[in-house]
Amino acid sequence: MKLEDIFITYTDKGELKEILDKLSLPSFGTKQESVARIMEKMSGKSPKSILALLDHPTLVEICRENKIEADGLFGLAFSSDDELVKKIIAKILDKDGVERKLEHKETTAAPSMIQGMKTLFGKVSDVAATMSAGSPSRPQEARKTMEAPPTASDPLTDLLRYCNKEDLQGAAEKLGLMVSGSKDEIIGRILNRTNRNPQDALSMLDNFSLQYIADRLNLPRRRGKDDQLDEILRRVFNVQMVRAPVPIVEEKIVTAAIRAPVQESYRPTAPAELPANTLFIKVVTEISEWTPDETYKSEEGYRTDLKSFLRARGFITRRETGDSRVDILVNDVIPIEIKKNPNKTEYTRAKGQMDNYCKEYGAGIVVICDAGNADLFEDFSRDVSRVCSGHPVRVIKKR
Fold it and tell me: Sign of the CA dihedral 345, 346, 349, 350?
């Protein structure tokens, strides 16, 4: 796989825009055009320097989807960005492309060292790191140092650094704080507002972020947010979670109402504060108005496009990585499945997924892109209505 392919496949528009802004490049145009501008700007740089532009969650996703071990050295459960980049270069990056990049790499190293890098391809990143040490041209140097394991001196800050910027912005928004600035600036505001209290700070994160932290610490995943938070507090800070009494909330009975799988006190702000069935209608309306930027070759392209579209309209979106493996989960409540020109077998699998979503989330949306067989699509729509009877579900066709 080439560097261009990695950026096109695994980044969304939001991350690409951050990279383009960091490199002082324009952010208009298609995803392919944006990636082309990045590659042109980084021409002559090492693959390690180019991959270092990606956020930590993206690097982890690349490793997991390509069956690359994401653990750190010596069996530790922590992998820094630098370690993940090395593994990606060694396992999936086109080796000829790496050698061509190395030939043009701007460096003051002796020719013999470059030849040694080519010979020992498996350790190319280690050598490249040595060559680049102290170089002012490494734009990600400061960010990489943030991904170390939690330290005894400041474990809370280190745990928050495991989260991506979007999740931290969501936590800051719940606390009524500014969401602009770097990750460290947002973390600093969260710590100041919560007086560095681990429970108060970590409880602002959603369960997905807490599960990700648990993965990084090699702790067991817990289904409920409170249970996951308690696990982290006990194992890292040696304290138990103080559980507040659950307030009695007047429940409005609505036909086929959706029950969120998280506690009421931890519901996201923004659109999720609407009644759940109203949120469902709002999401369906937005998807109906969504037009993909292009005809993508894979479901991943449509997923990224739709996720960026919904985020731009104020929704909180993420990809569920548990047993359900939802393509897009909106505000922790509305699951969306995306299929591109599915065949009969894929339609059958999608029907089963919708059944599971209705059981777990009480609702579901499936978006069929580039549907080739109209009869299969109609049969699928009827099957979903039958299987998910009594739940708000919608099958939406695009293009």
Answer: negative
Q: Is 142 left (phi over 0), alpha (psi -120 to 50) or beta?
A: alpha
Distance CA 339, CA 244 (A): 42
- Do residues 179 and 173 touch, judged by C-beta distance below 8 A? yes
Count of structural domains within the chain: 3
**Under 8 Å between Cβ of 167 and 206:** yes
Question: Rounded to whole angstroms, how far apart are CA atoms 354 and 268?
Answer: 23
* Cα dihedral 273, 274, 275, 279 sign: negative
Within 10 angstroms of residue 382's Cβ, the number of other Cβ atoms is 11
Does the pTM exceed 0.85?
Answer: no
Given strand 317-318, what is the order of strands in its sheet? 317-318, 328-330, 334-340, 364-369, 393-398
Boundary residue ending a domain (146, 162, 181) = 146
Instruction: Measure CA of the first residue to CA of the last residue in the chain; give whole Å.
Output: 29
For residue range 66-112, list pLDDT tens digits in order: 777 765 433 334 467 788 888 888 888 755 444 334 333 333 334 44
Same domain, 390 and 282: yes
Domain shared by 272 and 378, yes or no:
yes
Contact criterion met (CB below 8 Å) for 59 and 89: no
